[in-house]
Amino acid sequence: SVPGSDSNTSSTTTLSTVAPQAVLRQPRCSSRCWTHDCTAKFSSNHIIKFADDTTVVGLISNNDETHYREEVAQLAKWCGANNLSLNVSKTKEVVMDFRRNSVDHRPLTIDSSAVERVSSTKFLGVHITENLTWTTNVTSLNKKGQQRLHFLRRLKRASLPPPILTTFYRGTIESVLTSCITVWYGNCSAADRKTLQRTVNTAAKIIGAPLPSILDIFLARCSSKASSIVKDPSHPSHNLFQLLPSGRRYRSIKARSVRFLNSFFPQAVRVLNSNLPAPL
């Protein structure tokens, strides 16, 4: 459909090329071109679009869920107007409520059908739970890494040299163990961190050469991501990195909870400050 037109059908154009399925540009093109006008109505909500997956994130304050529920209704209305069908049976809702006296939340409905409420969901490969703990995610990633150790052992038995084994490890095992690591590693439990590091240590024994620890990779990626945000004034989180009057260190982000203290932005500020050269 063409936004602003009276008809739901646009003119037909024949293309001689097509974007193959799963190419890198396709999700961005589809979300920008086909769903460009599907945006959040309220500032307390955010709509995340990736290819054919859409996620609505709502911030509920003072027990007022009006804007959140209206946002979902507005999304359903937009889909109907654009000849898209929402599969309510595949739609899930996760409620994160950390108040001491939490209340029961009314079921969310779409087209008179109740949306299933779950304790965890998978978003772009990351398992997110209602209490924001990461054991489920770590267990899933570590299981994949352990399974791929089998192929590393087979390559070792084939007498491949350590450099090639290391390349295989980094491409097929490390990439899995550290997927989106800046999001979840900071709030991992000590047991979860040991679980991941144990897999890395096993791989190092198979290869016969040292490998970067999970912690070192996390710190390096935090530093890299934070540095790119600092250099990009257009980034939504650019203002979170503010230099102190001395111009030598970044201002720490105040956190009332350990969960927030160990999340990406406070961690990134600490990492940047620890990497700055000491004053003369």
From TrEMBL:
Domain Alkylated DNA repair protein AlkB homologue 8 N-terminal, first and last residues per copy: 134-175
Domain of life: Eukaryota
Pfam families in the cross-refs: ALKBH8_N
PANTHER family the UniProt entry points to: REVERSE TRANSCRIPTASE DOMAIN-CONTAINING PROTEIN
Protein name per the record: Alkylated DNA repair protein AlkB homologue 8 N-terminal domain-containing protein
